[in-house]
Structure formats: structure tokens, C-alpha cells
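seq as requested:
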Amino acid sequence: MLYNIDIPRKQIIRCLLFLASIKIFWFVFFVIFRNPLWPAHEVINGIALASGDSAQYFGPIDSFVDGNGYSSVCRMPGLLPIYGFLRLLFEPASAKIAVALLQVLGDIITSLMLCILAVRITGNRKAFFFTALLYGVSTFVSIRSNYLLSDSFSISTLIAGIYFLSTYLLFKEKKHLWIAGFFLAWSVFFRPVDLLIYGSVGLAILFYQRGKILPTMKLMAIILTPLLISIGIWTSKNVLVNNQIIFLQAPMEDCFSQYTKQHQAISSLLITMGEDFQQWSPESGAEWFLTKDDTDPGMPFKEEDLTSVYNYDSLIILRREFSESLKSNDSDRKSYLASVVVTKSSTYKEAFKNEKPMRYYLINRLKFIQMLLFPSRLDDLPLPAASQMNLLQKVAKGTSFLALLLVNFMAVFSLIYFVIRRNFSMIVWASFGFIFALTLGFIGYIEQRYLTPAYPFFCILTVALILDITARFKIKQSAIAN
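C-alpha cells:
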């Protein structure tokens, strides 16, 4: 159930000032203490950070503002209303700085919404400041405001959408459902992975409609309408302008030159074997396959990763063929080797699935979920190598990493706790975070920034668990005393 608990205006203002202070602090901290070796052309006016993907988000909007249309099918135009408007007022660099500042502002406002949502879910005013503290102390979400990507706005619009969904569930005014649908649809246009949230939205509406299917379908029709209309317009544009039927984004091989068909085949094989597909992950199968050469003696695979169809030597040969398929200057040789890599990878993958079904269908899925929730490192902080960090940088990264692990652990524990206690309302709200962790873990897509949509809800779960256990302990202590 949800609780309509009034929060005094003074507390709201105090919380807002705290959130603004800590979010601005982190933003400025990473402006001042970022890695000095960060490429100069990717630092905009010394403030905002671009990355390899930034051009795909901002380039098509620059083209649109310059009168050449939004030609890209590789990124959805979620940033278009924001950056496009700013480009009408400023030159590109200043407009990008304004985007970064708006990301901080959006993070602050929706963090306050998250704190109010925590009170509504837990029915306890203490959740207000506890959530603010827990959500603010970690850089896991805050750092997204420093980057010129879509992650920050994606999280902000997602939180806003769920906030207005809870407002509808409390007050039953349809306008709030339309607003929720608008923000959720917008979040998808920032990051298509946010589509997953609609599963939890449907579950929440069904729960608060007491399992009534027809009323749930009517309400879902409202909340889905903004998404369906916007995707319909986007798809029609892609058909008319690009002569392609693309509902969300074009396939990766069409957008990234490095993601060749043989690269994707190797990645698919690695996921099948239960390996991290990210080539920047230290000592992973992907690093060995995709970035090393024959001079590197390391072998990350174990005996249990092999099958009757391939052995260590087979994998070494496959790596050599993959490397040559990228480097060869002979186009025929290049094409032949690419085909060989794809065929072998598919054969090895099927052999693994057939000979080790328990590992493929269950153990590896659980392994990926564990790797996503409890990583061995913290990605995306623009800091120098550990040996070159000063004390402040080490403290910032260390506390953020510990906060991530703690919140994720508490979220998992809270899910188990509320299942045991048969608290179905909390189980429903837990699904808003776990739908990302479980789905991404199941398919083996464990890049850390794709867990950021789950993190706000994990913070609420952590606070809910602490408050529930504390309340029960006090009740027991009172009963003993009496």
C-alpha cells in the first residue's frame, strides 16, 4: 500500500538544500579532481566530459538545428528538446555546458521526488532524510551529470515517471497518470533499456487494482499512450527518411565500426560461457579475446569452460583468426576470416549449451546477476589510476564503491526479507529495481551504467528494510519492558 503522509515544508526545503549541496559538490569535485590525462578535446570548457558515444547523441541534434535534419538512427532523440532548444540560444560548447548544468538540476529535483516516494512507500517520515543521505553520498548516479551522455536525464525522467505514478495511485487523478506516461516515455527516448520499467508499472497497477484485469488494462492504455505515439512518430520518420523500419535504435553493427559481425560472435560466445563481454574489464575473457594478441601468454579460461568440440588451442587459434580478420589488408582474406570466426563461435557456443546445460541456463545467469550487483570494481568515475590518486580521490572512489556494494546487498536482503514476511506491497516496489538487475543479468549484459536505473529503488528498499527491522525491534523491546 501507499501512504499519504504530509511532509512539513521546512523539511522539504531542508532536504532540497542538502540534496543540492551534495549533488553540486560531487559535480564540482569531478570537475576539479578528474583525471588530468583526460583527452583535452573531450573536456568542454573545462567542465563537461564527452566520451566516444557523445557525438552520436549531440551530432544529430546539431545537424537538426543547422537545418539538415535528424539523420541518425543509432540514438533516439531524447536530448533533442533540451539540447536543440539550447543550441538555438548558444553556440555548441556553451549549450553543452548548459546541458550538464541542467542534468545536475534534474538530478536534484528528482532526488527530492525519490525521497517523497520513499515516504509514500514506507509510511515513515524518517525515510525522507535517510533516502536523501543514502542516495546522495554515492557518486554512482551523481557522476552521470558530468558526462555528455543520456544517462542522467534517463534516470531523472524515470524517477519523475514513477513519482507521478505513485501520485495517481494515491489520489486517483488521471492527469497524474498521463504525466507519468509522458516522463516514462521520455526516459525510453534517453535510454531504451528503460522499457523494462513498464513491466513493473503494470504489476504495480494490477496490485493496487486488487488484481482486476480490465481496470488495469485501461490504466495501462493511458500510461502507454505517450510511448506508443512517440515511438510511432519516430518509426515513421525512420521509414520515410532512412527507409528503415527501426522502432528504437539501429543494430550495433550499423552504428559502431568496431562491433563487426565477428566481434559480436565472440561476445555471444563469451556470454554463453559465463564470461564478461566487456573488453575493458581486466583479466576477462573479452579482454583476452578482443584486445590481446599471441604474445600474451595469459589464459582466463578454465578446464570446465572447454567442451569436446574445442580446447585451449582452439580458442587461441580463434583469437588469432579474429585478430587477423580485423588487421588484414586483403579484403578477401578479411571476409573469409570473419566468416570463419562467426561459424566457429556459433559451433563452440552450441557445444557449450548442449554439453553444459546447467551452467548455461542457470549457473551462468546467476553468475551474471552476481557480477552486476557485486562488481569487483567501480566504473565511470573520471579519476586517474589508483597509484596516481590523491587522498581525496581515493576516499571518494572508496566510499562510492562501498556504498554501491552495501546498497545492492541490502536490496537483495530486503527482497528476501519482504518475501518471507509476505509484504506484497514492498515486493511490488522491489520489482522496479530488480527488473533491471534480473533481466540484464539473464542476458549477460552487465555494463555497470545499465544498473543505474535500479539504484534509486535499491536505496528505497534499503531504507525500508532498516526502518521495518528497527520498528519491529522497538515493539519487541517495549513488549519485554511491559
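The chain has two domains: 9-250+377-481, 252-373.
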